Amino acid sequence: MALSFNPKTTAVVSMDFQNDICHPDAQFSQQVGFAPAIAASGVIPNTARLLAAARKAGMPVVHIVVDPTVASQFQNPSRGQFLQMLGDPNADPILVPGSWGAAIHDEVAPLEGEPVIGKWVFSAFASSNLHETLQSLGVTDVMMAGVVTEFVIDSSCWNAVDLGYNVIIVDDGCCSADVETHKNCVAAMAARADITTVDEVVGLLAD
Length: 207
What we know:
Helix content is 40%, strand content 17%. By secondary structure, it is an alpha/beta fold. Strands 3-2-1-4-5-6 form a six-stranded parallel beta sheet, sandwiched between helices. Helix 8 (149-162) links the parallel strand 4 and strand 5 (166-175). The mean pLDDT is 91.
């Protein structure tokens, strides 16, 4: 079935495009394999096109960032390889508020007035006021882009559906450190979301 959506009630939610996570000059991004995969996928320029088209059409655009200061409000999980790595006391700090590493990548940076919402750890809805923000904007559908697919996108998709939102996943606006992991995750999300591409969305908004 062809994709359709109402730009007035659909928000683009752009997630975790912070330098420490996705920039090729960031040590953490290189260490976990995100940087080369993100560069190869083209997800950042793809998402930049998506944001430009959405803004031109007057769609709400919301940015999500991982904010360690939010973690102090909650019990922090420590099981699992990725979470153990994040909690390693000997590792260099990442996503330090106010630092270059915590800033959103220049190509997909927010414009003045666009909400930037902090969260911890994976889902954009958990430990954040994203739901309240979307409700205040009259949003019924969320169009998701971000890194990485099996973490923030998948968990946010689950939460959004549980909260009653219609979800649209922008396939080439998402990326994993592993191509097969990304493909499998997107295929699984098709059971609870529509899957689209940047070209399709841009084309629909241009009509």
